[in-house]
């Protein structure tokens, strides 16, 4: 699933980011506060791949996505006017850094990737004697290959200005000051007022100096704008901002960023050359987890610094290629083995995307469903990367690591040794991941552990999976009677509703906590048999912000049937005007032949059989 594309399409069909006053998300849906509802195209929103439904409810636009809503919100939040503000309060400093880097680099990737591919194609054309080095054609194609990198600070300035909410043209002007001929081609040190030293250095292809500069500029701009009288703001605000920020950036933030970037490049080079085997096996082995946490964005500045300063990247970038190929191959193996027609089609298409470097559909849509496939990817990526980094494989430009990135493994001097190493690495990684996945005893319900496989086999014999028990005492009613139409229409799966008569929620089976909302009003559980269950305490209770709820488990915890999970305050929920209904939904309903709730309008005690699943 391409979450970035989903975010862009959602923004487009709500009438642009400026039409979104605020935004957040709960367990299954984006909740967007809209300025002008007439600009929202609900029908087009519903057609977006990955969107289950869209509607206005409780004064909000609710875009129902399901379990992946958090990933979509992560992609959409940088483009929203205010929606990332609440999230910032909950993010750690590290998370904020990753989110900011992602928001800055994602929009400029097309320009970098296009230029990077040209950088790889150019020596290939020379090697094949299709063009002559130094010819007019060669020089023009060199401009195509170099422009994005030479003026990288300008590209970053636009994106960073949008992220930090400062005028883009002021940001671009600040970037151009770093590339001004006096700074770019000068020597030694300049002195402002014969006092303030301004080091003369090349900021071409640098990343960190302009990010620091625009970030500080966002604060300076707001401070200046407050003190300048309204009648002269148009003239004096930009003048004062540039008068402060250009010297300050050239004197302080530029050099600081320059040396930070250089330090990152030195550390990366040292690791790749001093402990290449360890570096390769750790980064290559944990690459899927790095992607899942968004930590890969933290490597962007380092990779670009290496490419610009050294002319190559010999660490994270080539490792990404071998890890991506491993994901593609493992997904292809699953496509060969899986019996379910829909999953087979998804696996084939995701494998093709992964071979071209787009791994999200393969990772989130396939591999994470079958944990042994994930282990196969980690083993193949780690082993291959450790060998290849030890042998010194390099990428000579920045490009999305996939089959199309092979040209950038051709050494600019025309030799083919590095290119051959890359081909060998691709073969090793792909074959290892494919055959480990193919030979692994994976149960395709999907389940992954030995206990799950045994439980699945037993279920196939008996035709039934053990019943889901009632997690709370109360009166049960049909799901169709739920006051929330997203649940009542079965958009998230089949299930039942309980009107609770107590304030405690218990585990309905043995399994693990697969999801838990920060507001504590909803919990996701996965049984040993692979049943994925959503328990939602109350309707629209996400707005309570966790008040009245107390959890006793965390994501990843193993739970046993009858274990206390959550305490909630029914009286508080009702007094605030929210429905106390508790929908209990089997979110992977499509995996089973039938979901059979017990008779409705009856009393149930926690621990009674509630839902029977026929396999």
Question: Layout of helices and strands, plus pairs?
Answer:
Elements: H1 3-13, E1 20-25, E2 29-34, H2 42-47, E3 53-57, E4 60-64, H3 69-76, H4 84-90, H5 93-105, H6 109-127, H7 136-150, H8 152-164, H9 168-178, H10 181-185, E5 189-192, E6 196-199, H11 208-227, H12 233-274, H13 276-285, H14 287-293, H15 300-310, H16 316-337, H17 341-355, H18 360-365, H19 371-391, H20 417-439, H21 450-462, E7 464-469, E8 474-478, H22 485-488, E9 494-500, E10 504-506, E11 511-516, E12 522-527, E13 532-536, E14 549-551, E15 558-559, E16 564-568, H23 570-575, E17 582-586, E18 594-597, E19 603-604, E20 609-614
Antiparallel strand pairs: 1-2, 2-4, 3-4, 5-6, 7-20, 8-9, 8-19, 9-17, 10-16, 11-12, 11-15, 12-13, 13-17, 14-16, 18-20
Helix pairs in contact: 1-3, 5-8, 6-7, 8-9, 8-11, 9-11, 9-12, 11-12, 12-13, 12-15, 13-16, 13-19, 16-17, 16-19, 16-20, 19-20
Quick description:
The protein is of the alpha+beta class and 615 residues long. 50% of the residues lie in helices and 15% in strands.
Describe the structure.
- It is a single chain.
- With 615 residues, the protein is an alpha+beta fold.
- 50% of the residues lie in helices and 15% in strands.
- The protein is built from 23 helices and 20 strands.
- An eight-stranded antiparallel β-sheet has the order 15-11-12-13-17-9-8-19, with no helix packed on it. Strands 1-2-4-3 form a four-stranded antiparallel β-sheet.
- A hairpin with a 3-residue loop joins strand 1 (20-25) and strand 2 (29-34).
- The protein starts with a helix and ends with a strand.
